[in-house]
């Protein structure tokens, strides 16, 4: 344990010192973390012994905090701005992506049941804000493009949660006479409890925060823990009483962003730093554990599905959803390409491991393969293509 801790700490220390050097070129954080996990594990320096439950707890907690932070930071006014691009991507592009993933699954995996293919399509639909950070934080990329991708990635994983819960409920209750009714009841229960928990705890926290501010009882050092604590509280409480912790974190984040206004940026700083630390550990564990274990299961069909998931299944719906906008073809292709798959897909994949399905191994291997390719390809292309677009804009 101490050797693993020392190796991980040494990597974090080194990366923190030279991060600007790494990320200014072809590499980005998640790619470096995943490769570090692969290399350190292959050389024997890192010998992680985390089990499935430990990995699940780590990934779920990371996603809950990321969901809360993304939702809090989300500027819902942007949904209608810039020709409604984020709204187009979420309401048109996302459903088409799920449908496209299901159809491609029918073609490549005809032996897998239809509902399980739908689960795979949902798992691979949400995009990752952290993997796209090199794009959404790059001033060379036009502001409407950056804002649209940022809002899309911040909201689509929260939207996919109830859809995934629906399909999983149908799989679990498939033996009953009225599976749809039972599935809807289960999903509504999880959504309702999750939403109520998120609203109740966030509103109560905001009220207590106002009282504390009025009496000047706050201390800057401890106030940084308010929103991270709220995110974990919403998630853990909803999970404990039978609701969806992810919905609770997502709804709580949206309400916190509205209630706290501009003050949220200062309060969120610690939450985002905490999420970054957990993300590093998750990506290193993904590289050290998930990829080596799944590698032998990567068939030709799985590699092809993963590649199509990152290209045709994502890009075609984006091109359709952006019809009628003022963007040129290359910019639309850029928006379509930068839909990286990451943390949400990893968490959703861990969630389905305990669900009785015929093709669990194939679904898990396909998801891991897609995330691996996404981290690699999006990490290598983000900065060069962003720079190309920036030069193109300057010339015009």
Description:
The structure is a single chain. The protein is built from 17 helices and no strands. The protein is mostly helical and 396 residues long. The protein has a single domain, classed as Up-down Bundle (Na+/H+ antiporter like fold), CATH 1.20.1530.20. Helix 4 packs across helix 5 and helix 14 crosses helix 15. The longest helix is centred in the middle third of the chain and has 36 residues. The radius of gyration is 21 Å and the shape is globular. This is Cation:proton antiporter. Its main location: membrane.
Short description:
The chain is mainly alpha-helical and 396 residues long. It is built from 17 helices and no strands.
Give me some keywords for this one.
396 residues, mainly alpha, Na+/H+ antiporter like fold, 17 helices, 77% helix
